Amino acid sequence: MPHPTPLRRLLTRRRVVLACAAVTVLAAAAALLLAAPTTEVPGRALLVAGARLHPRPREVPRAAAAGRSPDDAPSLPPAPAPPPPPLNAKAGLPSKISPAPSMFSAPVPSPAENFDDGSTEEPEHPDMKENPLKESAPFLQEPISSGPPTRSSDISEPLDKSGNAEPPPRPEMPLWSTTADEELIYAKKEIADAPLVVGDPDLYAPLFRNISAFRRSYELMERLLKVFIYHDGAKPIFHSPELKGIYASEGWFMKLMEADQNFVVKDPNRAHLFYLPYSARQLEHNLYVPGSNTLDSLSIFVKNYIDMISAKFPHWNRTKGADHFFVACHDWGPYTTKLHDELRKNTIKALCNADVSEGVFIRGRDVSLPETYIKSARRPVRDIGGKPAAERSILAFFAGQMHGRVRPVLVKYWGGKDADMRIYTRIPRQITRRMNYAKHMKSSKYCICPMGYEVNSPRIVEAIYYECVPVIIADNFVLPFDDVLDWTAFSVVVAEKDVPRLKEILLSIPENRYITMRSNVKKVQRHFLWHTKPVKYDIFHMILHSVWFSRVNHIRCTK
Questions:
Q1: Which of 214, 190, 215 is closest to 76 using CA atoms?
Q2: 547: Cα within 13 Å, side-chain hemisphere
């Protein structure tokens, strides 16, 4: 047999080197996944676990003091359940996912965290509606072009006569029934027949769509609800709450949910709901490749995580994800679901970016999550309140960067043109010396809350904190806790096309009506406050109730 030529030896060595490099990468990925804690399932052998997630940041350091604006919730006899179907013996994350370079290193600071002007705005990036994401194969690819990411719903959904996306067909009935299903059916009937509530000292009826149904549902949640939390997945994407900034809602919910002893159970067979504890904020922070101009790496990671969960445990497949939920305040949260149909269509998604026009958020099933700007993780509730109605001398106030389609129009018509309308891109320095951003909100009758790049804004909750009536300008936005709260009682919603008539609309509101709304803002405030130890009817319980209420409403009787 002839001896190999030098060229052939060189090619053979290169193949060996490439093969060794591939084995090293796969071994590192396997080690990372195996390092994640596993979820205990009684009486069932577990398979290999692992995964992690996270979305886009919009931090808000040193804001209010510098005069800037933040931008930008009777027991039944047990029914024996048939044994679950066998698990896939080859469970685990697909090998074709390639981690972003930052996945194994310490997270780099968010662009918003690097602002040195005290701004609480989100970092600059183009409007996703105008720059849709480039479609690609369901595998990580090389960066397409330089520049910030773009996003848009690329999900083609049928539209109703109003132009809104119609809900997809109701999910199929569970593969088998559980005691938890029977309890949900019982709760659904109890809520439908809720006794009339009159003069409840703990709840103010005008704030609610139906106070009788809400109170009965809340009582049943406290008594019946059990939540199972998947322990699979490594930090920082899983089990790593971020408690400061404008995306803090998802972090605070994660922290309080995982520490809860009233609702959380270790036995998944008792659970009504299954929590997927990943952070959309951390997905962006750890997986997004700057300059790639695509969110594919995030979407693929989420898809692989759900595939692993559904292969390893029987619970997802029983309902096709209808009893699972996740909480994401980062703007990219909805878009990371695009590669997994069951996650996008069936799962209960608690999202700050609650835009019904994009075919991802489903009104009636999904939950509009309040976006709260938290300045201190130790004291999430501070600097609450404002001047009495009679001492609020400013008709309307807004200050912020020109993000999205609405704000430039707002400034065009009202910026520096009317003494009653304090509309700024940035509050002038000579004014901030006397009255900073927070003082403006505390001294204004109406606080203008226009959408930024997305429909949601932390200004809405911030206005409630400062007892200023929020004026919401964001078409297609489902307001937080819209399932139970009547926002007409404590806010004003203005169509985007009516921005030129904004002052006319506000002046047309009678004074006694304004005083009532402002009083209601103060009363509804308790439902939007975070506490280090949750209290009844606070924002943690309101979010959890909205998830519970959605699941109850969509439970189906078995055949």
A1: 190
A2: 28
The residue-averaged pLDDT of 74-99 equals 37
How far is CA 92 from each of CA 49, 123, 224, 316, 351, rounded to the nearest angstrom? 6, 36, 33, 15, 27
Q: Give the Cα separation of 130 and 126 in Å (integer).
A: 8
Q: How many CB atoms lie within 10 A of CB 238?
A: 24
Distance separating alpha carbons of residues 47 and 38, to the nearest angstrom = 9
Rg of the chain over Cα atoms, rounded to whole angstroms, equals 25
The angle, 0 to 180 degrees and rounded to 10, between the axes of the packed helices 296-312 and 280-287 is 120
Whole-structure pTM value:
0.75
At 383, the pLDDT band (50, 70, 90 cuts) reads confident
Q: Which of 377, 497, 491 lies closest to 445, judged by CA?
A: 491
Q: How far is CA 116 from the centre of its chain?
A: 27
Backbone conformation region of residue 403, classed left if phi is above 0, alpha if psi is from -120 to 50, else beta: beta
Cβ atoms of 335 and 355 closer than 8 Å: no
Structure tokens at 504: 């006319």
309-341 pLDDT, tens digit each = 999 999 999 999 999 999 999 999 999 999 999
Domains, in order of start, for the chain: 179-375+535-554 (no CATH), 389-528 (3.40.50.2000)
CA distance 51 to 326: 15
Count Cβ neighbours within 10 Å for each residue of 435-446 and write b for 16 or more, e otherwise: ebbbbbbbbbbb
d(CA 507, CA 352): 30
What sign results for the dihedral spanned by CA atoms 460, 463, 467, 470? negative
Helices (H), ranges, 107-176: none
- In angstroms, the Cα distances linking 11 to 18, 21, 217, 376 are 11, 15, 70, 59
CB atoms within 10 A of CB 389: 17
C-alpha distance across the termini of the chain, in Å:
72
Q: What is the pLDDT of residues 9-55, one digit of tens each?
A: 444 454 544 555 544 544 444 444 444 444 433 333 222 223 333 33
